[in-house]
Write a structure and sequence with these properties.
Elements: H1 12-15, H2 21-26, E1 41-47, E2 53-59, H3 61-65, E3 69-74, H4 86-91, E4 105-106, E5 112-118, H5 121-128, E6 132-137, E7 159-162, E8 173-181, E9 193-200, E10 203-208, H6 213-223, E11 231-234, H7 250-262, E12 266-269, H8 275-278, E13 285-293, E14 299-311, H9 322-326, E15 333-342, H10 355-373, H11 377-383, H12 401-412, E16 425-426, E17 429-441, E18 447-454, E19 459-462, H13 472-484, E20 491-494, H14 511-534, H15 544-550, E21 555-562, H16 567-570, E22 574-586, E23 592-602, H17 609-628, E24 634-635, E25 640-641, E26 659-664, H18 688-700, H19 711-715
Parallel strand pairs: 1-12, 10-11, 14-15, 19-20, 23-26
Antiparallel strand pairs: 1-5, 2-4, 2-6, 3-5, 7-15, 8-13, 9-10, 9-12, 13-14, 16-17, 17-22, 18-19, 18-21, 22-23, 24-25
Helix pairs in contact: 10-18, 13-14, 17-18
The structure holds dioxothiomolybdenum(VI) ion.
Length: about 725
């Protein structure tokens, strides 16, 4: 028995579906809101109807008399959250997470001012409608374009310079353009939900939608001043999140406070409208790109400015200008990033945070430049291909983006694209092709796995990691099956509970690299233990159950921790992608129909082909939404979202989704981890919006620089 490096997956892997697929499609998978601990009560939040100011009074008399009402909690009667420390906040310049029911201050429209708890959800909902708050309103600001001058660089930084500043200005071919990415809301199908139960005065259990049970455990322990082990967080299934469940939000604290007051478990499920104000969003971001090149298409300078919105009480930052610093081998790059505080809730990371926004601007600008230069957009990118990291000068751990360009161009039929826009019209529809590239850091974090071989020859792997949908359990089982040389059906991966061994939050496309490395090493350690038992009599095809029986053992286990690796010291590590799209633009109405999509990812070796394909398709669909439909619209007179429901906030439905082909370069990264796998979640979306915008221009000759690309903009 030897520890072999994985080269190819067993052929059964090609067809292996999700290990939890049956549970999900039969409804047997339990999501946070579906647990029903004894005595469960229901909390409904009441949101502020003003956007800025203070609460002058809250009349709860009628609501308290409504049937089934157990309690109404407001800032006037809420128990203190011991971890809310005003003195610490002063040090941070008064900035910090929103403290629910803390004082009379209103920072955004929809901010919870009360939670009504009743014995049924319907009774709580009705009573909530009877709570009457009165306010002292102050003048509010919610529009980024109108307040862009209020921006400041985060942490006094936000600027970057390589080579000469504004070098693009002296280039023979150049352009300067502004691009807008509006506020976009994650809107996973599963609403955010929590059930909180106090098991004793100092013991808390929650069933909570979260991307990281360990992070949530730590947050709640800090907020309620409890020993960590007294807080249990369960989150076995998560119905999508895309970043919205990366942190602890006020509604979670509301449920925990309510459970304390009524001495019963309390469930709080956000409404779809609450999802727009309570769990973050992709921030409205203005960008300006100046870009210049020589006649033969060599980039001489990029200037990238961005201003993104944040709340008045917290500085949210992301890296929209990062792509301009790193995607191309350009000698002169300067970028500037400001955040603009508005009277809105704090944004948060959303799939491809920063890069998705930045790549829309950069990859649109590059496309615009390609028409000036009369150089094919793919060729233009190849002429500026970065062979090493343009910023640090480090070699890449792996980069097969050229191969990705080739695969995608071939697959979409790029040779049919006309360089001149508006040249192809079929049955009243213009036909065009576009492409856009993406990159995202390939990260890896510390993780621990407990691996137990049981007497019946089944293997149990345990980790606290969450699975928000990509199919984490499936990938981990496949890694273990290969390592242990045993059938995947005999392996179970247990996850999503804070009592399990440490794992990082599922975010930043890092789970397979992080937890997968721990699975890989744990299996190697376990095999070594078996090796010791059997001495030299080992084979490559061990019967683990038989060995345990022969040695009178009920089971054999290991607990293995792996660190984040040290590749970053020597290498620049990224995943890369390119999206190619073919679109149809209706000549009479401006409606854009996506005809075909080819997404090519260089994300190292593919562990689980089926779930990888699904994840890329999901990312591309998110990109279609970002490109053509999604925008959370505020009526700035009231500071309130006006399309905070699925009738008015459009996400792609099946009729909007064409054939999407997920292609993989599928070459292992030799540095990042023993499996050679890099992240794929973020790069599945990054670059897609630009690809669509570029295809719309190629089809119709109309350049749309403000997302989403709705018919009025195409015709305008
Ligand atoms: Mo992702 S934005 O790290 O969930």
């Amino acid at each position: 028995m030897k520890t072999a490096t994985i080269k190819t997956m067993p052929s059964s892997a090609e067809g292996m579906g999700r290990v939890d697929g049956r549970l999900k499609v039969t409804g047997a998978a339990k999501y946070s809101a579906e647990y029903a601990p004894a005595g469960l009560a229901y909390g409904v939040l009441v949101g502020s109807t003003i956007t800025k100011g203070s609460i002058t009074a809250i009349d709860t008399k009628a609501a308290l008399k409504a049937p089934g009402v157990l309690a109404i909690i407001t800032h006037l009667n809420a128990p203190k959250v011991p971890g809310d420390q005003p003195e610490k906040d002063k040090k941070a310049g008064g900035k910090g997470a929103l403290k629910i029911f803390y004082d009379d201050k209103i920072y955004y429209n929809g901010q919870p001012v009360a939670v009504v708890v009743a014995d049924t959800f319907e009774r709580a909902l009705f009573a909530a409608s009877l709570v009457k708050a009165t306010y002292q309103a102050e003048k509010h600001i919610t529009s980024l374009p109108d307040n862009i001058e209020k921006g400041f660089p985060p942490h006094g930084e936000g600027a970057y310079k390589r080579g000469a500043e504004d070098a693009w200005k002296t280039a023979p071919f150049k352009l300067e353009q502004e691009y807008i990415v509006p506020t976009v809301t994650h809107n996973p199908m599963e609403l955010h939900a929590i059930i909180a139960r106090w098991d004793a005065d100092d013991k808390l259990s929650v069933w909570d939608k979260t991307q990281g049970v360990k992070d949530t455990q730590q947050d709640l322990a800090r907020l309620f001043k409890l020993p960590k082990e007294n807080v249990q967080v369960h989150s076995e299934f998560v119905g999508g999140a895309f970043g919205s469940a990366l942190r602890t939000w006020p509604h979670e604290v509301a449920a925990i406070l309510a459970a304390k007051v009524v001495k019963r478990p309390v469930k709080v499920v956000l409404s779809r409208a609450d999802m727009f104000t309570s769990v973050g969003y992709r921030p409205f971001t203005w960008q300006k790109i100046g870009i210049g090149a020589t006649a033969d298409g060599k980039l001489t300078g990029i200037t990238h400015e961005a201003a993104g919105q944040t709340s008045s009480y917290e500085n949210f930052t992301e890296g929209p200008t990062g792509v301009s610093q790193n995607l191309y081998a350009c000698p002169n790059v300067n970028t500037k990033y400001n955040i603009v505080p508005l009277d809105i809730a704090t944004p948060t990371w959303m799939r491809g945070p920063g890069e998705a926004t930045g790549s829309f601007a950069l990859e649109s600008a590059l496309d615009e430049l390609s028409y000036q230069l009369k150089i094919d957009p793919v060729e233009l990118r190849i002429r500026n291909y970065a062979e090493k990291d343009p910023d640090s000068g480090k070699p890449f751990s792996s980069k097969f983006l050229k191969e990705a360009y080739e695969l995608g161009a071939d697959h979409i039929g790029w040779k049919n694209r006309k360089q001149e826009p508006g040249m192809v019209k079929e049955h009243g529809w213009y036909v065009g092709y576009g492409m856009g590239g993406g990159m995202f850091g390939a990260y890896r974090d510390r993780a621990t796995i407990k691996a137990t071989m049981k007497a019946n020859g089944t293997l149990l792997l345990q980790s606290a990691v969450s699975d928000i949908g990509p199919g984490t359990g499936t990938a981990m089982v496949l890694i273990a099956a290969e390592q242990m040389n045993m059938p995947a059906e005999k392996i179970k991966f247990e996850l999503g509970d804070s009592s399990l061994p440490n794992a990082p939050t599922q975010g930043g496309s890092a789970t397979t690299a992080s937890v997968g490395s721990a699975v890989y090493k744990a299996c190697a350690d376990l095999k070594e233990k078996f090796q010791k038992l059997i001495g030299n009599g080992g084979t490559d095809n061990p019967d683990y159950a038989k060995i345990l029986k022969e040695h009178n053992l009920a089971s054999l286990d290991v607990i293995t921790e792996t660190d984040g690796g040290n590749g970053m010291q020597t290498y620049a590590m990224n995943s890369w992608s390119v999206h190619f799209v073919k679109v149809l633009v209706n000549a009479a109405t401006g409606v854009v129909k996506i005809d075909k999509v080819a997404c090519v990812s260089d994300c190292g070796r593919i562990i689980s082909p089926k779930t990888a394909r699904s994840q890329v398709i999901g990312g591309a669909i998110g990109g279609i939404g970002m490109a053509l439909m999604e925008e959370s619209v505020i009526d700035h007179r009231y500071g309130r979202y006006i399309n905070n429901n699925f009738a008015d906030y459009h996400v792609p439905v099946n009729a909007d989704i064409p054939q999407i082909d997920a292609l993989f370069v599928n070459k292992p990264d030799p540095i990042i981890n023993p499996m050679g796998a890099k992240g794929m979640a973020e790069i599945a979306l990054i670059g897609m919006a630009a690809a669509v915008a570029n295809a719309v221009y190629n089809a119709s000759g109309k350049r749309v620089r403000e997302l989403p690309i709705t018919p009025d903009k195409v015709m305008g």
